[in-house]
């Protein structure tokens, strides 16, 4: 495959991303909006249509969503690329945006796995990046949250994060690309729409270069994060010895805890990190338990351990008392994990990955992996809990710990 070079800034950004990913079959998530259509067109032009699959996720939230998805598919096929349209069900939650995002990323992960895609490219731009940083600031975030949207995470790649709205619009106009508008982009009940139409314009009157300033902030935070992580990673695993970690600066302590919580499959926010840090630096005495979303941490004298709402031994922890596990009441079955099994762990916010890869990421020893068990919902065959990994994303809403039983329990 020969990648076509270009001086156009959007095309150049795409070519640089393709170079980093390497050869393969490339997926492009395309809703039909200006950002994703421009991205799809540029990837097809750079990599060649036979190397591109345009993936459209139909959330079914608008009456004409199926027609738009079909139109995008026809456009992609007309360009010579392959097309996949995947319809998803969006769970009913307080945040429709979050639920739709969870369903979308899970579907993209499944398509990538099914087709063996080298990556899936997403059309987030500098505007999206800036909005994300500002929303996190207003909601309350730590320095890690200021890094905003990552340019790459796993097989998700965002080549356009540094590009302005003007660069996208200019590319679309130059190539006369068709655009399909999403009515949800005008719905002011959605947080991001309110930020885009009300908050950001007001702040731009104070600083016309607001977007660029927020993107620079995100870049600086990402640089900070890379340095902090090198110091935090040696401590980022439960059980944590408090007297050892307490000697580190607060930034390293909190980052180590956040990485350890993510690895354990326990959700948290900045307030929770402060609470866990207070446990670490307090004088060793007795036992203190702190409940977190989907799990808890416990300090016993000089050690902090973590457990998910469904108890499982952490990597390297003795398997004492966990020889028999009892599934909770309901449509669930307990079985050993199998090659090809996939799960949506909490730390990936609903994105699906192979269990084998998740075990490796969590550094679960090979002998423990071989006998690991999973809890499966029999109505849809989804894995809601995995030994050594904990709960799946969203599972805590439906599952509750069972009372302790002889031989071990969840």
Gap between N and C termini, in Å?
A: 51 Å
**H-E string:** HEHEHEHEHEEHHHEHHHEEEEEEHHEEE
Overall pLDDT, averaged? Answer: 84
Q: Shape, please?
A: globular
User: Percent of residues in beta strands?
Assistant: 15-25%
Order of adjacent strands in the largest pleated sheet? 3-2-1-4-6-5
Helix content: 40-55%
Brief synopsis:
Helices cover 41% and strands 16% of the residues. The protein has 13 helices and 16 strands. It is globular, with a radius of gyration of 23 Å.
Question: Your description of this structure?
Answer:
With 410 residues, this protein is an alpha/beta fold. Helix content is 41%, strand content 16%. It has 13 helices and 16 strands. Strand 9 (295-300) and strand 10 (303-308) form a beta hairpin. Helix 1 (9-21) crosses helix 2, helix 2 (34-47) crosses helix 6 (165-174) and helix 8 (210-232) crosses helix 10 (250-264). The longest helix has 23 residues, at 210-232.
Features:
410 residues; alpha/beta; 6-stranded mixed β-sheet; 4-stranded antiparallel β-sheet; 13 helices; globular
Write the layout of secondary structure elements.
Blueprint: H1 9-21, E1 26-29, H2 34-47, E2 52-58, H3 65-78, E3 82-87, H4 96-115, E4 119-121, H5 126-139, E5 152-153, E6 156-157, H6 165-174, H7 191-206, H8 210-232, E7 240-241, H9 242-245, H10 250-264, H11 270-281, E8 287-292, E9 295-300, E10 303-308, E11 332-336, E12 342-343, E13 353-354, H12 355-361, H13 366-370, E14 373-377, E15 383-386, E16 390-391
Parallel strand pairs: 1-2, 1-4, 2-3, 4-6
Antiparallel strand pairs: 5-6, 7-10, 8-9, 9-10, 11-14, 12-13, 14-15, 15-16
């Amino acid at each position: 495959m020969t990648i076509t070079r270009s001086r156009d800034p959007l095309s150049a950004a795409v070519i640089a991303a393709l170079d980093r990913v390497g050869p393969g079959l490339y997926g492009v998530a395309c809703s039909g909006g200006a950002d994703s259509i421009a991205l799809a067109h540029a990837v097809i032009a750079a990599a060649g249509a036979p190397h591109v699959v345009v993936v459209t996720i139909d959330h079914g939230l608008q009456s004409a969503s199926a027609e738009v998805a079909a139109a995008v598919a026809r456009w992609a096929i007309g360009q010579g690329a392959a097309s996949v349209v995947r319809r998803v069900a969006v769970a009913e939650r307080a945040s429709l945006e979050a639920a739709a995002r969870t369903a979308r990323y899970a579907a993209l992960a499944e398509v990538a796995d099914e087709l063996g895609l080298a990556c899936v490219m997403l059309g987030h731009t500098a505007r999206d990046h800036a909005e994300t940083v500002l929303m996190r600031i207003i909601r309350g975030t730590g320095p890690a949250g200021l890094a905003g949207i990552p340019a790459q995470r796993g097989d998700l790649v965002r080549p356009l994060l540094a590009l302005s709205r003007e660069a996208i619009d200019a590319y679309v106009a130059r190539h006369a690309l068709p655009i399909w508008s999403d009515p949800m982009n005008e719905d002011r009940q959605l947080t991001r729409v309110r930020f885009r139409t009300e908050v950001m314009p007001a702040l731009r009157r104070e600083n016309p270069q607001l977007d660029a300033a927020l993107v620079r902030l995100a870049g600086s935070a990402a640089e900070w994060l890379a340095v902090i992580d090198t110091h935090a990673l040696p401590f980022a695993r439960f059980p944590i010895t408090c007297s050892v970690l307490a000697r580190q600066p607060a930034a390293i302590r909190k980052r180590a805890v956040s990485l350890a919580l993510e690895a354990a499959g326990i959700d948290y926010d900045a307030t929770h990190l402060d609470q866990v840090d207070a446990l670490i630096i307090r004088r060793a005495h007795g036992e203190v338990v702190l409940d977190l979303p989907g799990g808890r941490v416990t300090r016993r004298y000089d050690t902090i351990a973590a457990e998910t709402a469904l108890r499982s031994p952490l990597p390297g922890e003795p398997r004492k008392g966990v020889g028999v596990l009892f599934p909770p009441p309901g449509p669930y079955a307990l079985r050993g994990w199998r090659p090809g099994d996939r799960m949506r762990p909490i730390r990936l916010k609903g994105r699906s990955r192979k269990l084998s890869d998740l075990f490796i990421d969590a550094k679960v020893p090979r002998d423990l992996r071989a006998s690991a068990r999973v809890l499966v919902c029999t109505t849809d065959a989804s894995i809601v809990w995995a030994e050594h990994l904990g709960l799946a994303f969203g599972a805590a809403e439906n599952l509750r710990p069972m009372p302790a039983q002889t031989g071990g329990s969840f």
